[in-house]
């Protein structure tokens, strides 16, 4: 394999390692992903335009990327300032605030999109016609999401990471 291709594949490998690390160790990341999956299910009841789907995908990416940047900032702060430090607190609090702003913004836009009467009507129609299937599916989703969100974590000490990961 040529050097540029190996280097490109290497960049993907480390990026996927970062994504996997956040999913395995950040509860908030798993909450965002569970909500995203729920939203994908809900989309089946709505007839969104291509632009509305694009907006939903953009919101998923925005919130998840913000959460990952927050984790990156927390990790660097832990590396540089393991003890109590007012500046460390400030950096973490500001990063957490940024995630909150993205998540609240996404929730507000989501509410506006999903308040569409046509979609709500279809949702209620399916609920009325197939209650067992509908509520069984909803409970199944909630149980799986809870199991995913509260999976035990094995947070790594950043100083112990391997160099090539
Ligand atoms: N080194 C530190 N010095 C001072 N305050 C800190 C320090 N580390 C954390 N804090 C405070 O504790 C809060 C929680 O920090 P922590 O590192 O546990 O992040 P978190 O928001 O709980 O992230 P997560 O649970 O996603 O790892 C921070 O927002 C900050 O206010």
Q: What do these coordinates show?
A:
By secondary structure, this protein is an all-alpha fold. The protein has one domain (11-151): Helix Hairpins. Helices cover 80% and strands 0% of the residues. The protein has six helices and no strands. The protein has helices spanning 3-25, 27-43, 50-80, 86-114, 117-129, 131-149. Helix 3 (50-80) runs antiparallel to helix 4. Residues 161-165 have low confidence and may be disordered. Adenosine-5'-triphosphate binds at residues 26, 28, 74, 81, 84-85, 88-89, 92-93, 96.
Task: List its traits.
80% helix; mainly alpha; binds adenosine-5'-triphosphate; Helix Hairpins; 165 residues; disordered C terminus; 6 helices
User: What can be said about the biggest beta sheet?
Assistant: none
Share in β-strands = under 5%
Instruction: Report low-confidence residues grouped into runs of 5 or more.
Output: 161-165
Pattern of helices and strands:
HHHHHH
Bound ligands: adenosine-5'-triphosphate
InterPro entries: DAGK, DAGK_sf, MFS_trans_sf, UDPK
Subcellular location: Cell membrane
GO molecular function: ATP binding; kinase activity; metal ion binding
Cofactor: Mg(2+)
């Amino acid at each position: 394999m040529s050097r540029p291709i190996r280097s490109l594949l290497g960049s993907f490998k480390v990026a996927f390692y970062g994504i996997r690390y956040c999913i395995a160790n950040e509860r908030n990341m798993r909450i965002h992903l569970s909500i995203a999956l729920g939203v994908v299910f809900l989309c089946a009841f709505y007839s969104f335009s291509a632009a509305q789907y694009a907006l939903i995908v953009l919101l998923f990416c925005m919130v998840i990327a913000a959460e990952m940047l927050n984790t990156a900032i927390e990790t660097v702060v832990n590396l540089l300032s393991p003890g109590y430090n007012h500046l460390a607190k400030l950096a973490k609090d500001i990063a957490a605030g940024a995630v909150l702003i993205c998540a609240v913004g996404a929730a507000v836009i989501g509410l506006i999109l999903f308040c569409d009467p046509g979609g709500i009507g279809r949702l209620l129609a399916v609920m009325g016609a197939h209650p067992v299937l509908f509520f069984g599916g909803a409970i199944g989703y909630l149980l799986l999401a809870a199991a995913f969100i509260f999976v035990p974590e094995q947070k790594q000490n950043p100083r112990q990471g391997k160099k090539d990961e």
